[in-house]
Amino acid sequence: MHLGWQAKQRPDAIAVIESGGRTVTYAELDARSRQLAAAIGLRPGDALAIRMPSGAAFLEVAWAAQRSGLLYTPVNTHLLPAEVEEMAQGKLLITEEVYERLLAAPGTGEFEECEGRELPFSGGTTGRPKAVRKQLTAGPMGDPAAECVQVAQGSAHFWREDERLRGFTPPVRLDLRGVGARAAAYGITGFTNADPHPGQDLPELLSVLPQRLVVMGIGDAPVKFLLDDATLPTPGELAASVAAVRPRPVAVHCVTRVQLLVTLLALEEAGPVAGDRIEHGSVIPAETMPWLARLGVTVVTQPHFPVERGREYATDVDPDDQAHLYRCRSLAKAGIPLAAGTDAPYGSADPWAVMRAAVKRSGGEAVARRAALDLFAGEPQRPSRVKRLAVGSVADLCLLHVPLKEALDLMSADVVRATFVGGRRITPPE
User: Fold this and answer.
1) What domains can you pick out in the chain, each with its CATH number?
2) Which of 51, 107, 122, 385 could be a cystine partner for 75, CB 3.0 to 4.6 Å?
3) Residue-wise pLDDT tens digits, 233-253
4) DSSP letter (8 states) at residue 197
5) pTM beyond cutoff 0.70
Protein backbone atom coordinates (compact mmCIF):
# COMPACT_ATOMS: atom_id res chain seq x y z
CA MET A 1 0.00 0.00 0.00
CA HIS A 2 1.27 3.50 -0.79
CA LEU A 3 1.91 6.11 1.89
CA GLY A 4 -1.34 8.01 1.30
CA TRP A 5 -3.33 4.92 2.21
CA GLN A 6 -1.21 4.43 5.33
CA ALA A 7 -1.74 8.06 6.35
CA LYS A 8 -5.51 7.61 6.15
CA GLN A 9 -5.67 4.25 7.87
CA ARG A 10 -2.85 4.60 10.44
CA PRO A 11 -2.06 8.32 10.78
CA ASP A 12 -0.34 8.01 14.18
CA ALA A 13 1.71 4.93 13.33
CA ILE A 14 5.45 5.39 13.04
CA ALA A 15 6.55 5.57 9.41
CA VAL A 16 10.25 6.38 9.81
CA ILE A 17 12.81 5.86 12.56
CA GLU A 18 15.95 7.84 11.80
CA SER A 19 19.45 6.98 12.99
CA GLY A 20 19.34 9.51 15.83
CA GLY A 21 16.15 7.99 17.20
CA ARG A 22 13.76 10.62 15.78
CA THR A 23 10.43 9.18 14.67
CA VAL A 24 8.00 10.49 12.07
CA THR A 25 4.37 9.37 11.74
CA TYR A 26 2.45 8.79 8.54
CA ALA A 27 0.32 11.86 9.30
CA GLU A 28 3.43 14.03 9.61
CA LEU A 29 4.82 12.68 6.34
CA ASP A 30 1.49 13.30 4.67
CA ALA A 31 1.24 16.91 5.87
CA ARG A 32 4.79 17.87 4.88
CA SER A 33 4.57 16.14 1.51
CA ARG A 34 1.39 18.12 0.75
CA GLN A 35 3.10 21.34 1.79
CA LEU A 36 6.11 20.54 -0.38
CA ALA A 37 3.98 19.52 -3.39
CA ALA A 38 2.27 22.91 -3.31
CA ALA A 39 5.47 24.86 -2.69
CA ILE A 40 7.41 23.17 -5.51
CA GLY A 41 4.89 24.58 -7.95
CA LEU A 42 5.57 22.30 -10.91
CA ARG A 43 2.91 20.84 -13.19
CA PRO A 44 2.19 17.13 -13.81
CA GLY A 45 4.75 15.72 -16.22
CA ASP A 46 7.51 18.11 -15.09
CA ALA A 47 10.70 16.65 -13.64
CA LEU A 48 12.92 17.30 -10.64
CA ALA A 49 16.01 15.75 -9.09
CA ILE A 50 16.49 14.98 -5.39
CA ARG A 51 19.98 15.02 -3.89
CA MET A 52 19.46 14.42 -0.16
CA PRO A 53 20.62 11.84 2.37
CA SER A 54 18.29 8.95 3.16
CA GLY A 55 15.75 9.87 5.80
CA ALA A 56 12.30 11.30 6.39
CA ALA A 57 13.06 14.53 4.51
CA PHE A 58 14.02 12.63 1.36
CA LEU A 59 10.86 10.54 1.64
CA GLU A 60 8.73 13.66 2.03
CA VAL A 61 10.14 15.21 -1.16
CA ALA A 62 9.83 11.96 -3.13
CA TRP A 63 6.24 11.51 -1.96
CA ALA A 64 5.44 15.13 -2.79
CA ALA A 65 6.69 14.53 -6.33
CA GLN A 66 4.89 11.23 -6.69
CA ARG A 67 1.53 12.55 -5.51
CA SER A 68 1.66 15.65 -7.72
CA GLY A 69 2.36 13.94 -11.04
CA LEU A 70 6.09 14.70 -11.25
CA LEU A 71 8.95 12.64 -12.61
CA TYR A 72 11.64 12.57 -9.93
CA THR A 73 15.24 11.39 -10.05
CA PRO A 74 17.08 10.40 -6.85
CA VAL A 75 20.72 11.53 -7.16
CA ASN A 76 23.43 9.79 -5.14
CA THR A 77 25.04 12.16 -2.62
CA HIS A 78 28.48 10.64 -3.38
CA LEU A 79 28.48 11.82 -7.01
CA LEU A 80 30.79 14.59 -8.14
CA PRO A 81 29.31 18.00 -9.11
CA ALA A 82 29.73 17.29 -12.83
CA GLU A 83 27.93 13.95 -12.45
CA VAL A 84 25.12 15.62 -10.48
CA GLU A 85 24.76 18.21 -13.24
CA GLU A 86 24.62 15.42 -15.83
CA MET A 87 21.75 13.70 -14.03
CA ALA A 88 19.89 16.89 -13.06
CA GLN A 89 20.01 18.09 -16.70
CA GLY A 90 18.38 21.44 -16.00
CA LYS A 91 15.66 20.07 -13.73
CA LEU A 92 14.83 21.62 -10.38
CA LEU A 93 17.39 20.15 -7.95
CA ILE A 94 16.10 19.61 -4.41
CA THR A 95 18.86 19.63 -1.77
CA GLU A 96 18.61 19.90 2.01
CA GLU A 97 18.87 23.71 1.75
CA VAL A 98 16.13 23.89 -0.90
CA TYR A 99 13.97 21.55 1.19
CA GLU A 100 14.16 23.92 4.18
CA ARG A 101 13.29 26.92 2.01
CA LEU A 102 10.28 25.13 0.52
CA LEU A 103 8.93 24.25 3.96
CA ALA A 104 9.35 27.85 5.10
CA ALA A 105 7.70 29.33 2.03
CA PRO A 106 4.08 30.53 2.38
CA GLY A 107 1.61 28.80 0.09
CA THR A 108 -1.97 27.81 -0.52
CA GLY A 109 -1.34 24.12 0.04
CA GLU A 110 -3.14 23.37 -3.23
CA PHE A 111 -1.80 21.18 -6.01
CA GLU A 112 -3.14 18.78 -8.64
CA GLU A 113 -3.28 15.29 -7.16
CA CYS A 114 -2.18 12.63 -9.65
CA GLU A 115 0.40 9.89 -9.69
CA GLY A 116 4.00 10.68 -10.60
CA ARG A 117 6.86 8.26 -11.12
CA GLU A 118 10.53 7.86 -10.47
CA LEU A 119 12.73 8.88 -13.42
CA PRO A 120 15.83 6.70 -12.96
CA PHE A 121 19.01 7.04 -14.94
CA SER A 122 20.87 4.13 -16.42
CA GLY A 123 24.47 3.97 -17.53
CA GLY A 124 23.10 1.28 -19.85
CA THR A 125 25.89 -0.06 -21.99
CA THR A 126 27.23 3.33 -23.02
CA GLY A 127 28.65 4.53 -19.73
CA ARG A 128 26.77 7.85 -19.92
CA PRO A 129 23.69 8.34 -17.71
CA LYS A 130 20.44 8.31 -19.65
CA ALA A 131 16.92 8.89 -18.37
CA VAL A 132 14.64 5.85 -18.44
CA ARG A 133 11.38 7.75 -18.89
CA LYS A 134 8.19 6.08 -17.72
CA GLN A 135 4.71 6.81 -18.98
CA LEU A 136 2.50 8.76 -16.56
CA THR A 137 -1.00 7.38 -16.14
CA ALA A 138 -2.73 10.64 -15.13
CA GLY A 139 -4.68 8.45 -12.75
CA PRO A 140 -5.07 8.56 -8.97
CA MET A 141 -2.34 7.35 -6.66
CA GLY A 142 -1.93 3.57 -6.51
CA ASP A 143 -4.35 2.67 -9.30
CA PRO A 144 -2.99 -0.56 -10.88
CA ALA A 145 -5.70 -0.54 -13.54
CA ALA A 146 -4.30 2.70 -14.95
CA GLU A 147 -0.87 1.08 -15.18
CA CYS A 148 -2.31 -1.97 -16.92
CA VAL A 149 -4.00 0.25 -19.52
CA GLN A 150 -0.70 1.92 -20.29
CA VAL A 151 1.09 -1.41 -20.62
CA ALA A 152 -1.64 -2.76 -22.89
CA GLN A 153 -1.32 0.30 -25.13
CA GLY A 154 2.41 -0.33 -25.41
CA SER A 155 3.33 3.18 -24.32
CA ALA A 156 5.00 2.48 -20.97
CA HIS A 157 8.71 2.02 -20.29
CA PHE A 158 9.66 0.25 -17.08
CA TRP A 159 13.04 0.08 -15.38
CA ARG A 160 13.74 -2.98 -13.23
CA GLU A 161 10.15 -3.38 -12.13
CA ASP A 162 9.80 -7.12 -12.83
CA GLU A 163 8.32 -7.92 -9.45
CA ARG A 164 5.79 -5.10 -9.68
CA LEU A 165 4.67 -6.00 -13.19
CA ARG A 166 4.45 -9.72 -12.44
CA GLY A 167 1.30 -9.09 -10.44
CA PHE A 168 -0.41 -7.38 -13.39
CA THR A 169 0.42 -9.79 -16.21
CA PRO A 170 -0.47 -13.44 -16.82
CA PRO A 171 2.39 -15.95 -16.72
CA VAL A 172 4.17 -16.52 -20.02
CA ARG A 173 5.26 -19.98 -21.02
CA LEU A 174 8.99 -20.06 -21.68
CA ASP A 175 10.19 -22.11 -24.63
CA LEU A 176 13.41 -23.13 -22.93
CA ARG A 177 13.78 -26.25 -25.04
CA GLY A 178 13.68 -24.05 -28.14
CA VAL A 179 16.29 -21.74 -26.60
CA GLY A 180 18.53 -24.72 -25.92
CA ALA A 181 18.10 -26.10 -29.44
CA ARG A 182 18.92 -22.76 -31.06
CA ALA A 183 21.98 -22.38 -28.84
CA ALA A 184 23.14 -25.88 -29.69
CA ALA A 185 23.01 -24.98 -33.38
CA TYR A 186 25.50 -22.18 -32.61
CA GLY A 187 27.79 -24.71 -30.91
CA ILE A 188 27.04 -23.40 -27.41
CA THR A 189 27.75 -25.92 -24.64
CA GLY A 190 27.00 -23.77 -21.60
CA PHE A 191 25.03 -20.81 -20.26
CA THR A 192 25.68 -18.37 -17.43
CA ASN A 193 22.61 -16.81 -15.86
CA ALA A 194 23.62 -13.44 -14.40
CA ASP A 195 20.42 -12.55 -12.54
CA PRO A 196 21.49 -10.68 -9.36
CA HIS A 197 18.55 -12.15 -7.39
CA PRO A 198 17.98 -15.70 -8.65
CA GLY A 199 15.27 -17.80 -7.06
CA GLN A 200 16.41 -21.03 -5.49
CA ASP A 201 14.21 -22.90 -7.97
CA LEU A 202 15.82 -21.25 -11.01
CA PRO A 203 18.34 -24.08 -11.65
CA GLU A 204 15.47 -26.57 -11.70
CA LEU A 205 13.47 -24.37 -14.08
CA LEU A 206 16.44 -24.09 -16.44
CA SER A 207 17.36 -27.77 -16.17
CA VAL A 208 15.50 -28.52 -19.41
CA LEU A 209 18.33 -26.77 -21.26
CA PRO A 210 20.74 -29.38 -22.65
CA GLN A 211 23.71 -27.09 -22.02
CA ARG A 212 25.69 -26.83 -18.80
CA LEU A 213 24.43 -24.09 -16.55
CA VAL A 214 26.04 -21.64 -14.12
CA VAL A 215 23.53 -19.60 -12.10
CA MET A 216 25.23 -16.72 -10.34
CA GLY A 217 24.50 -16.67 -6.64
CA ILE A 218 23.67 -20.40 -6.52
CA GLY A 219 26.11 -23.06 -5.31
CA ASP A 220 29.75 -22.11 -5.82
CA ALA A 221 29.04 -19.73 -8.71
CA PRO A 222 30.06 -16.07 -8.40
CA VAL A 223 27.70 -13.77 -6.53
CA LYS A 224 26.35 -11.01 -8.77
CA PHE A 225 26.40 -7.36 -7.65
CA LEU A 226 24.39 -4.97 -9.80
CA LEU A 227 25.50 -1.33 -9.50
CA ASP A 228 23.56 1.77 -10.51
CA ASP A 229 24.99 5.27 -10.27
CA ALA A 230 21.81 6.59 -8.64
CA THR A 231 22.09 4.12 -5.74
CA LEU A 232 25.82 3.51 -5.77
CA PRO A 233 27.30 2.26 -2.49
CA THR A 234 30.52 3.68 -1.11
CA PRO A 235 33.64 1.60 -1.70
CA GLY A 236 33.57 0.62 1.97
CA GLU A 237 29.95 -0.48 1.78
CA LEU A 238 30.57 -2.57 -1.32
CA ALA A 239 33.72 -4.03 0.26
CA ALA A 240 31.66 -5.11 3.29
CA SER A 241 29.11 -6.76 1.00
CA VAL A 242 31.87 -8.55 -0.91
CA ALA A 243 33.55 -9.69 2.32
CA ALA A 244 30.23 -11.07 3.55
CA VAL A 245 30.10 -13.61 0.68
CA ARG A 246 33.74 -14.64 0.78
CA PRO A 247 35.35 -17.04 -0.03
CA ARG A 248 33.00 -17.08 -3.02
CA PRO A 249 34.00 -14.94 -6.00
CA VAL A 250 31.91 -11.98 -7.10
CA ALA A 251 30.76 -10.67 -10.48
CA VAL A 252 30.23 -6.91 -10.42
CA HIS A 253 28.15 -5.17 -13.08
CA CYS A 254 30.19 -2.09 -14.14
CA VAL A 255 29.01 0.15 -16.97
CA THR A 256 30.37 3.55 -15.90
CA ARG A 257 33.70 4.96 -14.76
CA VAL A 258 32.49 5.59 -11.24
CA GLN A 259 31.12 2.04 -10.91
CA LEU A 260 34.46 0.62 -11.98
CA LEU A 261 36.37 2.84 -9.55
CA VAL A 262 34.11 1.91 -6.62
CA THR A 263 34.47 -1.77 -7.52
CA LEU A 264 38.26 -1.66 -7.71
CA LEU A 265 38.49 0.15 -4.38
CA ALA A 266 36.10 -2.38 -2.82
CA LEU A 267 38.03 -5.37 -4.17
CA GLU A 268 41.27 -3.82 -2.97
CA GLU A 269 39.81 -3.52 0.53
CA ALA A 270 38.05 -6.90 0.64
CA GLY A 271 40.87 -8.70 -1.15
CA PRO A 272 40.40 -10.37 -4.56
CA VAL A 273 39.88 -14.12 -4.93
CA ALA A 274 40.18 -16.41 -7.93
CA GLY A 275 37.07 -16.10 -10.07
CA ASP A 276 36.28 -12.45 -9.32
CA ARG A 277 35.07 -10.71 -12.46
CA ILE A 278 33.93 -7.40 -13.86
CA GLU A 279 30.79 -7.78 -15.94
CA HIS A 280 30.72 -5.60 -19.08
CA GLY A 281 33.55 -3.20 -18.21
CA SER A 282 31.78 -0.73 -20.51
CA VAL A 283 34.20 2.11 -19.68
CA ILE A 284 37.71 1.14 -18.58
CA PRO A 285 40.10 4.12 -18.60
CA ALA A 286 43.67 3.27 -19.53
CA GLU A 287 44.98 4.33 -16.12
CA THR A 288 42.90 1.63 -14.39
CA MET A 289 44.28 -1.28 -16.43
CA PRO A 290 47.45 -1.84 -14.37
CA TRP A 291 45.21 -1.89 -11.28
CA LEU A 292 42.94 -4.51 -12.86
CA ALA A 293 45.92 -6.59 -13.90
CA ARG A 294 47.40 -6.48 -10.39
CA LEU A 295 44.13 -7.60 -8.82
CA GLY A 296 43.85 -10.43 -11.34
CA VAL A 297 40.17 -9.69 -11.95
CA THR A 298 38.63 -11.16 -15.11
CA VAL A 299 36.73 -8.80 -17.41
CA VAL A 300 33.79 -10.37 -19.25
CA THR A 301 33.15 -7.88 -22.03
CA GLN A 302 30.89 -7.44 -25.06
CA PRO A 303 33.25 -6.51 -27.90
CA HIS A 304 30.35 -6.42 -30.38
CA PHE A 305 28.47 -3.55 -28.74
CA PRO A 306 30.62 -0.73 -30.26
CA VAL A 307 30.12 -2.37 -33.68
CA GLU A 308 26.38 -3.00 -33.29
CA ARG A 309 25.67 0.35 -31.63
CA GLY A 310 28.29 2.61 -33.16
CA ARG A 311 25.88 5.39 -34.18
CA GLU A 312 24.16 5.43 -30.81
CA TYR A 313 27.46 5.52 -28.94
CA ALA A 314 28.79 8.31 -31.17
CA THR A 315 26.03 10.61 -29.94
CA ASP A 316 25.23 9.25 -26.46
CA VAL A 317 28.66 8.51 -25.02
CA ASP A 318 30.75 11.26 -23.49
CA PRO A 319 33.67 12.05 -25.84
CA ASP A 320 36.08 11.40 -22.96
CA ASP A 321 34.77 7.82 -22.76
CA GLN A 322 34.77 6.98 -26.46
CA ALA A 323 38.28 5.54 -26.49
CA HIS A 324 37.60 3.38 -23.44
CA LEU A 325 34.43 1.56 -24.55
CA TYR A 326 34.37 -2.23 -24.28
CA ARG A 327 38.10 -2.68 -24.48
CA CYS A 328 39.32 -5.99 -25.84
CA ARG A 329 42.83 -6.23 -27.27
CA SER A 330 44.22 -3.56 -24.94
CA LEU A 331 43.01 -5.53 -21.90
CA ALA A 332 44.67 -8.69 -23.14
CA LYS A 333 47.92 -6.80 -23.83
CA ALA A 334 47.83 -5.42 -20.27
CA GLY A 335 47.70 -8.96 -18.87
CA ILE A 336 44.09 -8.74 -17.71
CA PRO A 337 42.17 -12.06 -17.84
CA LEU A 338 39.57 -11.63 -20.58
CA ALA A 339 36.41 -13.37 -21.78
CA ALA A 340 33.34 -12.38 -23.74
CA GLY A 341 29.61 -12.86 -23.46
CA THR A 342 26.76 -12.14 -25.84
CA ASP A 343 24.69 -10.43 -23.10
CA ALA A 344 21.62 -11.84 -24.86
CA PRO A 345 18.86 -10.74 -25.08
CA TYR A 346 20.41 -7.24 -24.92
CA GLY A 347 22.88 -8.17 -27.63
CA SER A 348 23.12 -10.75 -30.39
CA ALA A 349 22.67 -14.32 -29.13
CA ASP A 350 25.09 -15.56 -31.82
CA PRO A 351 28.64 -15.93 -30.44
CA TRP A 352 29.99 -16.13 -33.99
CA ALA A 353 28.61 -12.64 -34.66
CA VAL A 354 30.40 -11.41 -31.54
CA MET A 355 33.64 -12.98 -32.76
CA ARG A 356 33.26 -11.31 -36.16
CA ALA A 357 32.78 -7.98 -34.43
CA ALA A 358 35.81 -8.55 -32.20
CA VAL A 359 38.13 -8.96 -35.18
CA LYS A 360 36.71 -5.83 -36.86
CA ARG A 361 37.05 -3.45 -33.92
CA SER A 362 38.68 -0.10 -34.55
CA GLY A 363 40.92 2.00 -32.32
CA GLY A 364 43.45 -0.76 -31.78
CA GLU A 365 40.92 -3.04 -30.04
CA ALA A 366 40.62 -5.71 -32.79
CA VAL A 367 41.88 -9.16 -31.85
CA ALA A 368 43.14 -12.05 -33.95
CA ARG A 369 40.60 -14.63 -35.06
CA ARG A 370 41.85 -17.37 -32.77
CA ALA A 371 41.85 -14.94 -29.84
CA ALA A 372 38.23 -14.06 -30.66
CA LEU A 373 37.30 -17.74 -30.51
CA ASP A 374 39.14 -18.16 -27.21
CA LEU A 375 36.94 -15.44 -25.67
CA PHE A 376 34.14 -18.05 -25.71
CA ALA A 377 36.22 -21.16 -25.01
CA GLY A 378 36.73 -20.67 -21.27
CA GLU A 379 35.86 -22.93 -18.37
CA PRO A 380 32.43 -22.31 -16.82
CA GLN A 381 33.74 -20.89 -13.53
CA ARG A 382 36.93 -19.44 -15.05
CA PRO A 383 35.79 -17.96 -18.36
CA SER A 384 39.23 -16.50 -19.18
CA ARG A 385 40.94 -19.89 -18.83
CA VAL A 386 40.64 -21.62 -22.21
CA LYS A 387 39.47 -25.19 -21.84
CA ARG A 388 41.60 -27.76 -23.66
CA LEU A 389 40.51 -31.24 -24.71
CA ALA A 390 42.51 -34.15 -23.41
CA VAL A 391 42.08 -37.90 -23.35
CA GLY A 392 39.65 -38.79 -20.59
CA SER A 393 38.27 -35.26 -20.19
CA VAL A 394 34.56 -34.48 -20.28
CA ALA A 395 33.49 -34.06 -23.89
CA ASP A 396 31.86 -30.64 -24.03
CA LEU A 397 32.68 -29.71 -27.59
CA CYS A 398 31.58 -28.22 -30.88
CA LEU A 399 32.33 -30.42 -33.91
CA LEU A 400 32.92 -28.51 -37.16
CA HIS A 401 32.20 -29.33 -40.79
CA VAL A 402 35.53 -27.84 -41.84
CA PRO A 403 39.08 -27.52 -40.47
CA LEU A 404 39.55 -24.94 -37.72
CA LYS A 405 41.48 -22.53 -39.95
CA GLU A 406 38.62 -22.43 -42.44
CA ALA A 407 36.08 -22.05 -39.62
CA LEU A 408 38.00 -19.06 -38.28
CA ASP A 409 38.00 -17.50 -41.74
CA LEU A 410 34.22 -17.93 -42.03
CA MET A 411 33.23 -17.28 -38.41
CA SER A 412 29.68 -18.46 -38.93
CA ALA A 413 27.36 -20.93 -37.24
CA ASP A 414 27.18 -22.64 -40.64
CA VAL A 415 30.45 -24.40 -39.78
CA VAL A 416 28.88 -26.19 -36.77
CA ARG A 417 28.26 -29.87 -37.49
CA ALA A 418 27.30 -31.10 -34.02
CA THR A 419 27.40 -29.99 -30.39
CA PHE A 420 28.14 -32.33 -27.49
CA VAL A 421 27.72 -31.84 -23.74
CA GLY A 422 29.13 -34.47 -21.41
CA GLY A 423 29.73 -36.73 -24.41
CA ARG A 424 26.06 -36.59 -25.42
CA ARG A 425 25.05 -35.06 -28.71
CA ILE A 426 22.57 -32.20 -28.17
CA THR A 427 22.02 -31.31 -31.84
CA PRO A 428 19.72 -33.39 -34.05
CA PRO A 429 21.29 -36.43 -35.71
CA GLU A 430 22.32 -36.04 -39.33
Assistant:
1) 3-166 (3.40.50.12780), 176-425 (3.20.20.140)
2) 51
3) 999 999 999 999 999 999 999
4) S
5) no
